[in-house]
Amino acid sequence: MTDQEKCLVREINAIQNQVICGDSAVELKKLPDNCIDLTVTSPPYDVFINLLNHKNDNIRLLCVKHLGKFPDSKIVQILAKLFETESNTLVKREIVSSIGRRRLEKNVHILLKFCDDQDPKVVLQAIRGLLYFKDNPLVTKKLRDLQNHENEIISQILKTELVKDNVKKIKSARKNKTEYENLIIKADSRDFLKKLPEGIIDLTFTSPPYYNARDYTIYKSYEEYLTFLEDVFKEVHRVTSEGRFFLLNTSPVILPRVSRKHASTRYAIPFDIHPRIVKLGFDFIDDIIWAKPAPSAKNRTGGFFQHRKPLAYKPNVVVEYVMVYRKKTNKLIDWNMKQYDKEVIEKSKVKGPYEMTNLWQIAPSYDKTHPAPFPKKLVENVIKYYSYENDLVLDPFAGSGTVGTVCNSMNRKYLLIDNNEEYVDTMRKRLNSIKHT
After folding, report:
1. Interatomic CA distance for residues 193 and 238, integer angstroms
2. Cβ pair 128, 96 in contact under 8 A
3. Which neighbouring-strand residues pair with 323?
4. Which residues sit opposite 416 in a β-bridge?
């Protein structure tokens, strides 16, 4: 932006402030000589209209924003006409937003036309304005048609907005969950989770078995492994309370090569299971990187260290992924927070230092009964950031039971499931729970 244009932007904002704060009939000053020469006359928004054809996109955008603050119906026609010739997407979206914010039924026909635009964000702005008139038959029909829009956000928003809210109250689910608190279950998670009432779990944090990388996990194929996980997570979704979180710890797995004539195979588990989880009805929220100290990694760089030949480079793997998902809902997180009384909220607040980035530096743990236990620090972070006191936390692949141990120390309830008898016996001895099955 040139100095002249920057000066013009400052003057535009100054003029708007005069119009809003002062008398609408006030005589506004002429712009400085080093700017575009414009004399403001009545009506007071003419200065903005005169600049709608300016070559600078930011100036046009600013003028459209200011014009949206004036009630004159003539402005709507000017903006609608500008939309037809405007090439900048930000300006076009602001035009739609300015018209929609007026909430006038006489503008519905204009907003309906915007719904056919190729830019999904323009359509979303139009929908935002039309939802105020969703009882209007023309609007209702258009919004129903848009439920099948090829853009997933448009489709998702409308399917939520146009369906009546039949969500069960969280408080009733809480009554059903007391009999499942502090349990350690020996079972296949796919089978046991089907027995649970819907919506009783407040948080799930788990790390599934590796794909054929340990003796205790043998699957016929990678597809069978992913399907198994999908079956478990389908039930996790059902038993999770509306809007609550599911955190999954996984990492790519390397299967050794059969011989020197064959290459090893690496499976990108976090990325292959992700689309299946989203399809089940979870929204992706965050990806947290769990970084381990370099000495904890298996050495893969020995050969490259010696010969330094390109193409043979293989880094030592020191990270795993903690993918954060939230059960799909049209309600914001504030709604979930309001389910708790002030005392629980105060007790559950995160005190002291906390992780400010998605890179968590945590050393791995070792356990004589389990080859891949959760580090206690990792579980503590997840539980304090994604649950409240007395919440019920599920781990469907409980392993050594670290989730249960941390829940005990942080005043949460746990539900641990594993199909390995040795692991279950170890968990029970460690946790000494009041009630086990």
Report:
1. 9
2. no
3. 248, 287
4. 184, 395
Gap between the Cα atoms of 374 and 382, Å rounded: 11
Least Cα distance to 336 among 211, 169, 213, 182 occurs for 169
437 residues of the chain, pLDDT tens digit each? 566 666 666 666 665 554 444 433 333 333 344 443 444 444 667 888 888 988 889 889 989 988 988 888 899 999 999 999 999 999 999 999 999 999 999 999 999 999 999 999 999 999 999 999 988 999 999 999 998 899 988 988 887 787 655 445 555 566 678 899 999 999 999 999 999 999 999 999 999 988 766 555 678 899 999 999 999 999 999 999 999 999 999 999 877 666 666 667 888 999 999 999 999 999 999 999 999 998 887 888 888 888 998 988 888 889 999 999 999 998 899 999 999 999 999 999 999 999 999 999 999 877 666 666 789 999 999 999 999 999 999 999 998 899 999 999 999 999 999 999 999 998 998 887 544 45
Q: Which two tokens stand for residue 164?
A: 């009546």
CATH number for 170-431: choose from 3.30.420.40, 3.40.50.300, 2.60.120.10, 3.40.50.150. 3.40.50.150
Written as six digits, the tokens of 44 are: 């007071």
| Calpha distance 361→378 (Å, rounded) | 9
Q: What are phi and psi of 204, to 5 degrees?
A: -120, 130
> Two tokens at 285?
């929220």
- Is there a cis peptide before residue 43, judged by omega within 30 degrees of 0? yes
Superfamily for 3-161?
Leucine-rich Repeat Variant (1.25.10.10)
What contacts 179, CB < 8 A, 6 or more positions away?
none
pTM over 0.90: no
Q: List the Cα angle 354/367/437 in 5-degree steps.
A: 90
Q: How many CB atoms are located within 10 Å of the residue 191 CB?
A: 12
Domain edges within the chain: 3-161, 170-431
Query: Please, which residues bridge with residue 394 across strands?
Result: 204, 415
Where residue 432 falls (left for φ over 0; alpha for ψ -120 to 50; beta otherwise) is: left
Using the structure block, give the residue that is written with the tokens 């439920």.
147
Residue 401's alpha-carbon distances to 23, 305, 419, in angstroms, are: 70, 39, 13
Calpha distance 148→158 (Å, rounded): 9
